[in-house]
Write a structure and sequence with these properties.
The complex is a heterodimer. Helices cover about 35% and strands about 25% of the residues of chain A. By secondary structure, chain A is of the alpha+beta class. Among the domains of chain A are: about 1-60, no CATH class; about 155-295, Thrombin, subunit H (Beta Barrel). The relative contact order of chain A is 0.12. Mean pLDDT of chain A is about 80; it is low at about 275-299. The mean pLDDT of chain B is about 85. The longest helix of chain B is centred in the last third of the chain and has 25 residues, at about 95-120. Chain B is built from 7 helices and no strands. Chain B has one domain: Arp2/3 complex 21 kDa subunit ARPC3, CATH 1.10.1760. Chain B has helices spanning about 1-25, 25-30, 35-45, 50-65, 70-90, 95-120, 130-155. Chain B is globular and about 40 Å long. The chains are: A alpha+beta, B mainly alpha.
Chain lengths: ~300, ~160
């Protein structure tokens, strides 16, 4: 009997194991819950299970953290890239918004002027040297002619000095060769505004008795035959020379030429531009026969 | 003593790895049964007794960790381990080809025993499709061939 059992030890062990497992499962299925066998096994296996669970949790947690970290790094890089693109986009939008605002102001001016006009963008400038000129992206193909007035929302800018296809050079009112017939808005005193170079003008032919004060607004009088009457030009700055016959007056242009980006060219058809002959404006201080402003020798 | 410890460590490690990897790649690990591979290895190399007890221990642990019917994995792994161990006594399973065939058969048999047991117990279960069984056979077969080959190279002669 002992030999029989020893020879069949493994099959008997298998049968015992299988029978035990079947009984274990049957008990669970009948009770529909974790019964005593499972509870006992759980108690026996509890330390090992806890250890295994702790290990698997920590490994799974570490793996999950690693995956999250990798994902977070990629997301961060992606978000930084998006942020850069959005910042650029934002800058473009802000630029567009500001341009839109400027153009709207210019459009309102255009409607108010009741003169046919052409909008133009400033594509170049020479406001630091001797001459004070701008280059705009409109030329003969847009009907631009010499001496046409150029204005912005803040006031007059200057006049067209020379034109070529696709490009026009604008002589600013601050150019030392420029002259503009103006009138003091408050007292209606007339004078000539001459360019003084460094973003300033001087108001000439104002007599001692004339009523001109600091911050008085100067507007175009229309007498120079170039600028329409009533456009803002400059504000009176320093007034001196009270003991002399003629006063010495500086004026600050209303337009900031250094920040000018868009202008309106007024297509006045009534401007006399005989080649080689001085027109009314030239008689007031801007002689078209003279060399271009940027060709003038330094004073 | 050392070999017993190695045996237990391998069983424990395979169950833990199965549990952890199933969390990370559930679809892939559905086709691979690492504890079964360890049981098969010990069935081939140590005989049916070790495989039977190893399968019982690994299966119970797997049941407890996976929350399946306690004894289901234990039954299938103990039975398959015993059968493979018996085959190992009678057939030469050292060469690669018979080993691959045994692993493939064991993978299918294990799943079949689980389904059969559930059916006998009257438990509802989703019947495994043939493609799933084939994929499980292929996954366990590839992983088993690689791992058992590696174990045999590492094991002291």
């Amino acid at each position: 009997m002992t030999n029989f059992l020893r020879d069949r030890r493994l099959p008997i062990l298998l049968l015992v194991v299988l029978a035990s497992l079947f009984i274990l499962m049957s008990v669970q299925v009948r009770r529909q819950e974790a019964g005593a066998p499972e509870g006992s096994l759980m108690r026996i296996a509890s330390p090992a299970v806890r250890a295994v669970s702790a290990v698997s949790d920590s490994v799974a947690g570490a793996w999950s953290n690693y995956v999250d970290l990798r994902g977070a790094r990629q997301r961060t890089a992606s978000l930084e890239e998006q942020l850069t693109l959005l910042r650029l986009e934002n800058q473009k939008l802000e630029e567009a918004r500001m341009e839109n605002s400027r153009l709207r102001t210019l459009l309102e001016l255009r409607d108010a002027l009741s003169v046919e006009s052409v909008p133009a963008n400033v594509v170049g400038s020479s406001t630091r040297g001797i001459s004070r000129t701008l280059l705009v992206n409109r030329g003969t193909e847009s009907g631009i002619r010499k001496n046409m007035p150029v204005v912005s929302a803040a006031g007059i800018v200057g006049r067209v000095w020379s034109v070529s296809p696709g490009l026009a050079k604008i002589q600013l009112i601050t150019d030392s060769a420029a002259g503009t017939a103006v009138i003091v808005q408050r007292t209606r005193v007339q004078g000539i505004l001459l360019g003084a170079g460094a973003d300033l003008c001087t108001l000439e032919y104002i007599f001692r008795a004339d009523d001109v004060s600091k911050e008085d607004l100067l507007v175009t009088s229309g007498l120079d035959g170039i600028y329409p009457k009533g456009l803002a030009v400059a504000e009176v700055g320093e007034v001196s020379g009270s003991g002399r016959l003629l006063r010495r007056i500086t004026a600050v242009p209303r337009v900031d030429f250094n920040q000018l980006e868009e202008v309106l060219i007024l297509r006045r058809t009534d401007i006399p531009v005989p080649d080689g002959l001085p027109n009314q404006a030239d008689a007031l201080g801007a002689d078209p026969a003279r060399p271009a402003p940027d060709q003038l020798p330094p004073r | 003593m050392a070999s017993t410890l190695r045996f237990l460590s391998a069983l424990l490690g395979s169950v833990v790895l199965q549990s952890v990897l199933a969390g990370a790649w559930p679809r892939t690990m559905a086709f691979v049964d690492l504890p079964l591979i360890v049981v098969l290895y010990y069935g081939i190399t140590q005989g049916p007794g070790s495989a039977l007890m190893g399968g019982l221990a690994a299966g119970l642990l797997q049941d407890v960790l996976q929350g399946t019917l306690l004894g289901l994995n234990a039954l299938s792994k103990a039975l398959v381990g015993y059968l493979v161990g018996m085959m190992g006594l009678r057939l030469a399973l050292g060469p690669a080809l018979p080993r691959v065939l045994v692993i493939a058969a064991a993978a299918v048999l294990s799943r079949a025993i689980e389904m059969g047991t559930l059916a006998i117990m009257g438990r509802r279960f989703a019947p495994l499709s043939l493609p799933f069984l084939l994929e499980a056979m292929l996954g366990t077969c590839i992983a088993g061939t690689l791992l058992i080959g590696a174990f045999r190279r590492q094991a002291p002669q």
